[in-house]
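Quick question, first post here. What does this chain look like in 3D?
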Amino acid sequence: MAPPPSPVARRPPSVLRGILLMVLATAAFMAMQGAIRFLTFELPPFVIAFYRNFGSLLILAPWTLRMGLHSWRAARPGVHLLRGGINVVSMLCQFTALSMTPLAEVTALSFTAPLFATLGATLFLGEKMRLRRWTALAVGFVGALVILRPGFAEVGAGPLLAVFASALWATALLIIKLQARTDSSLTITLYMALVMTPLSLLAALPWWVWPDPRQLAWLAAVAALGTLGQMALAQSFREADATAVMPFDFLKLLWAAAIGFVAFGEMPDAWTWTGGAVIFSSTLYIAWREAKTKRDGGVRRG
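> Answer (accepted):
Ran it through. Tokens below.
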């Protein structure tokens, strides 16, 4: 009689684990954004942003204490301050957009962040990009125009804030890319929370409202879901190549549509679905081309 399979043998393949973690990350992020949209009907977005950052700081505290002084060592603390400031403005814009725009539309427009990051890396970090990726980049921004439809529909402040938030988040991603060369992931995350918490508090003070116990529970859920999403996303990329797991990032739009319909009675229109699909497809193609270039030893063909 053959021995039972070992626990290691029963583990799913690495790529499958990566995909499952990406699915978990998308669900957690969209549940968080749904909770944020719900809370914006009762609390100012800036107050929600402060509690989101403060909750992350509390969640990070045990890891920080266990790591000791090592987690505090940063090669360039000033860069952390700059990135934290950019992150705060991006978060405030995103939360404000969620207070006035359907969840699925904000989610579809958030897919533009990798496009802005690719453009920024080309313009400011000297990364080379040839015709096919330039074309994909242009197509992605056309997808954003499909959703916004300037000249054919009134473009509200919410969608514009969502696009601006994505552009700022892309800037923060480029800074993180540079920081990762010298600082650990824990250090980067810790400094982000340390900088963003007081800055978001300053932004929230003019609109300050003390949450009641029920609202505090929702705010705790926002912080927990955001942390869970970040951890699942990071581990997903450790388990499998980005090209294997990134297609499942489009589930964000499906989750957002479901949450928006059930919780808020929102139904995404055809423009949101079409534009979101176009934006996501272009970012997926750019990611695939970048991965292929690395596998080919850095020879760039497009």
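Residues 12-295 form one domain.
The longest helix spans residues 213-239.
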